[in-house]
Design brief:
Layout lengths: L15 E3 L6 E3 L1 H10 L15 H9 L6 H19 L12 E4 L6 H11 L4 E5 H6 L4 H12 L4 H4 L3 E5 L12 H13 L2 E2 L2 E2 L4 E6 L4 H10 L10 H4 L5 H7 L3 H6 L2 E4 L5 H9 L5 H10 L4 E4 L1 H14 L4 H17 L6 E6 L1 H5 L5 E4 L6 H5 L7 E2 L2
Parallel strand pairs: 3-8, 3-9, 4-5, 5-8, 10-11, 12-13
Antiparallel strand pairs: 1-2, 6-7, 11-12
Helix pairs in contact: 2-3, 9-11, 13-15, 15-16
Bound molecules: adenosine-5'-diphosphate and magnesium ion (MG).
The site of magnesium ion (MG) has 3 residues, from helix 4.
Length: about 375
């Protein structure tokens, strides 16, 4: 190999050495430009540690989670740093862990972000629930660690490098429960590090989340003597102003708050975001129904108006994206009962009226003699006969 010539064209002088890890390729400017034409314009930097970079983790989350940019970013960075920490030899500078507190209304994606995160990770991951820990008087903490241990294939050393998400953490606040403080103390021990179910919990990354309803009033009281109106302010922005003192006033013990130093807010999802959730992600609800119908050789279509109505109704339920499935299941039930038994059915179109008035969908048949059962829920005028 000529030391100075480009390895690709073997004509020009090489100007750049790339991919040192996979055996040094030296290339010339012309070949670099040519490669850029066929490759992505900007190559992602491959992490020197061989770990998924924060942007790779976020890109994975983006495939499933609509909006909530702050949360996706913060979690991606925290997980990346967690990987680094558990790979570290422990010599010299000690890398401390930064547990995360996620604040956002119900159905905004707190649990969802974490469960989608689990799919991308090769560290054990489990989800716990503060309300069940509370009702067990703290005993469920052990169950949660056992679940992590199971996710680690029973290997305590592997479990010690895991990540745990604890849902509904705000329900441990004093305003909700008299025994909440005690459970916070018990959880604190777990987060700080103790041996539970044979697992040293000191290195486990904890992400905790809750709705923290009315936390904005605590902040408003502090900043403006209660005269600040936060209406219309994005939660992700508001949370940037939260102090440990606010959380203490809310009813969390200071030691606990001190152990989850990163705060991130998730916003209430508006109608457009809810429509996106129905249609855009890899496993979007509308796509799931389409797939189920396709398995019976029936094409399923939702009109834009129908999707908008589902989103509007979900917003009225005040349960965030969680309401979408409830509404869909309810409105799709009848047609899902009848459609599979009708061999002539070719296409079902869900219109806005199906959502608002529980009207019949539009059915397209291959033949002129539809199943009498199906005909019952089919207004005659809507039938389009393809013979
Ligand atoms: N931002 C989002 N993007 C996509 N789907 C979402 C989002 N937020 C919520 N969902 C959907 O709504 C469901 C309930 O959300 P969840 O994460 O459990 O809410 P919570 O914030 O109360 O923990 C999820 O399982 C998911 O299907
Ligand atoms: Mg949740």
């Amino acid at each position: 190999m000529n030391k100075d010539l480009c390895d690709l064209c073997k004509v020009n002088l090489a100007t750049k050495v790339s991919n040192p890890s996979s055996g040094r390729i030296q290339v010339c400017d012309a070949c670099i430009i040519k490669m850029r034409g066929i490759q992505k314009p900007k190559e992602e930097r491959v992490s020197t540690l061989g770990l998924p970079t924060p942007s790779e983790i976020k890109a994975h989350l983006d495939e499933y989670v609509i909006e909530q940019e702050d949360a996706k970013k913060v979690i991606s960075v925290a997980v990346y740093n967690h990987y680094k920490r558990i790979q570290d030899s422990g010599e010299g500078v000690q890398l401390g862990k930064s547990n995360i507190l996620m604040i956002g209304p119900t159905g905004s994606g707190k649990t969802y972000v974490c469960s989608m995160l689990a799919k991308a990770l090769d560290v054990p991951f489990t989800i716990g629930d503060a309300t069940s820990i509370l009702s067990s008087g703290g005993r469920d903490i052990e169950a949660m660690i056992e679940k992590l241990l199971a996710a680690a294939g029973g290997d305590p050393k592997k479990a010690e490098r895991g990540i745990i998400y604890i849902d509904e953490i705000d329900k441990l606040a004093e305003r909700y429960s008299k025994t909440g403080k005690r459970v916070q103390q018990a959880l604190l021990k777990c987060i700080e590090g103790s041996i539970i179910a044979g697992v040293d919990t000191g290195n486990i990354l904890f992400i905790v989340g809750g709705a923290f309803v009315d936390l904005e009033f605590v902040i408003a009281d502090r900043i403006g003597g209660g005269h600040i109106n936060f209406e219309g302010v994005m939660i992700s922005e508001l949370i940037k102003n939260v102090t440990p003192g606010d959380l203490k006033l809310y009813g969390m013990i200071p030691e606990f708050v001190g152990r989850v130093p990163i705060y991130v807010g998730l916003n209430e999802l508006n109608v457009q975001a809810l429509i996106d959730i129905l249609t855009v992600p890899k496993n979007a609800l509308a796509q799931q129904y389409k797939k189920m119908f396709a398995m019976d050789d029936v094409e399923l279509e939702f009109t834009i108006d129908a999707l908008a109505k589902v989103a509007q109704l979900a917003q009225k339920l005040k349960t965030g994206a969680r309401g979408l499935r409830t509404i869909m299941e309810d409105r799709m039930r009848e047609v899902m009962f009848h459609a599979p038994s009708n061999k002539d059915l070719q296409k079902v179109t869900i219109t806005a009226e199906v959502i608002t008035d529980r009207a019949s969908p539009i059915f397209d048949f291959v033949y002129a003699n539809p199943d009498p059962e199906l005909a019952e829920i089919t207004p005659k005028r809507e039938k389009k006969l393809i013979v």
